[in-house]
Each structure stands twice: as C-alpha cells, then as structure tokens.
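Comment thread on ticket #2218

A.B. wrote:
> Attaching the input chain for the structure job we discussed in standup.
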Amino acid sequence: MPELAIIGQSPAVVSLIRNLRERGAGWDITLFSTEGILPYDRTRLVSLIGRKAREADLLCEAAGFYEKNGVRVVLDKEIARVNPSRRRIFFSDKTQVGFDALVLADAPQVRFAERKGVRKPGVFHLARLSTVKALVKHLVQADTVVIEAAGWGGIEAALAVRELGRKVMVVILPQFPVGEEGKVSLDVLSALLSRREIRMVSEGPLQDIIGEGEVRAVRFASDKVMAAEIVILEEVLPDLRFLSEGGLVVNERIVVASDMRTSAADVFAIDTVCELQEPRFFGHYAFDAERVSGQGEVVAWALSGETRAFSFPPENDRKTFERIFGRDLVEEVERELTPPPEMCMAPTTPGDDNGTQTS
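C.D. wrote:
> Ran it. Output below, let me know if you need it in another format.
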C-alpha cells in the first residue's frame, strides 16, 4: 500500500484520518507529532492557565482511535527537515523515512515576527502546549502581564490571567475582528475588559521588549514604556526553515490551492501552516476542531482520487464574544454605551415639518 505521512497534531488530522477510512482509501498512515502529543484543540490551551482543564481534555481523540484506524503514531522523533521533491523526512537522530504522499499540519517550531526582545525568557505565545505549560509556571512569580491580542485567544488568556490575580494590559492588533459591520464593537470590548479590571492599552503595538536577560518592561509604538514581567504575543508564524529543500511555494505560510494541494506533487498543507492562493488568507491563530475539520475532509477526497474545494466556514465573532463574556452582560454594556434615540436625531431648524426655514 502507498505510504501517507502526516506531520502535526492539528484537529484537521483527525478529520482526515476518519474520512480516509470511511472512503476505504488504501493508505498506510503514519502520524508524526511535532509536540510529542496526539492531535488536540489548540484554542483550548488557555483553559490550562486557570487549571480549568487537564492536558487530556484537549485531545481530539484518545489513542484508541488511531489504533482502530490502523494509524502508526510516532511521538518521540524530532523532525530536522523535509524534502518534498525527494519525498523524504529526515530526523535529528540521523534516520529518515520516505512517503508517497505528505500532509503538513504543523511545523516543528513557530516563530514571532522579528522585533527586539522577543527571544527573552518571559515572552510566550499560545500556539504550543509546552509553551503554555511554561507560561503557567512563570505566572507564579509575575505581577504584570502584557498581552498582544490578534484574536479571541488573547482575550481569553487575559481573562484567565486576571482570574489568577495578576495585573493585565491588553493591546489589540489591527487584524482583531472588531470595528467592521457585523463585527464586535471595540468600545464594548474595552468596557467589558474594564469590568474585569483589565486595561486595554491604546499606545499602539509593542515595539520592543526591555530587560537584561528577562522581561522588565515593554515599549509601545507611541514610545511609552510600561513595566511587565510577562509578555504574551498571540500572533505567531510557522517556522518553515525545515522545508528549505523541495521547491514549495512559501510566503509567511505554505501556499495551497483550494483543494489544499501545495506546489509539490502529492504534498498537502492544512491549518495554520497554509494560506490559500485565492480567495483569502487563513487567520492568524489556530482555529478550533470544528472550523478546520473541512480541510482534512478535502485532503481525504484528494487522496481518494476526487477533487473538492475547501469552503471556509463563516465566522461568527458575535457568538464568540457572547460565549466569552456572557450574552446578558454584553447586551447590558451595549445599552449603557448606546446614546438615547433623541441624542441621535439630526437637529432641525425652525420652520415646517421638513425642517425648511419659512420666510
């Protein structure tokens, strides 16, 4: 049977495996984890901050699912590089394996956008289990946390850290889903955070992180400096240097067509390591299991000899907003911030009913 290699622990991997087996496609499947853990829902990592969930609660499926579906799971091999054109995966222990088809669902590492201080101890992201576990330990000795939020994960992290009694400041990045028609009001978000004693900072994005060896302060675009012991940067990118050979088309992520195919034959990319050629770019942080499952299904169709296009599920930021803060509280704050109808009426000049001045 042909060999299918899957790299990563995205929830889309589970959908891929399930759909392949349902179609009876004849593939020997090997799953290589880049984190030493089975596929899990990364958007739930913030629940570990307040110990509201255990590591096992994040798993999409237990180990029995992979055994039942004939999937060989490899949790203890560190991937050094991948050559798609030669169809080889190379490991840090000098071993290598071949494949007939490859699905890239994760990179071995992620990286921050380049700026001063991002490599200091005390700077964290929300994209890897090991990093969030290290953040939880670091919070014990911290007083002030600055969070740069690119999406809802940053807001949920802010609430979780605040519940631990830490002082929290949040910087909203431009791509955060607020301000447009049908999106969430930034004023309402600020008011809701304020009720939790979380300050929304309007000094612009972080310019650099200050401190000798460890985080001591942050400098904003406005040049204002604020003290902090921990910085959480929600927006990260996959570190794709392990794909330096093989001729894939890569921007910040791996470019794919609508059926998730890359520029290399029989190589697919899904979830946060990919971006569509058309019509849109996949978002800035991990989507939950439900929202990425369609990508795995599309790849399963392709590996079964049929072509389907991935249709990105519609976003519902309002629903997410209400889930995080509670619908009643959101509506209460919206009413408080909405001016009375009489204040919204355009002024009229003395005259007739149409506001026309009479002579």
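A.B. wrote:
> Thanks. Noting for the ticket: The two ends are 92 Å apart (CA to CA).
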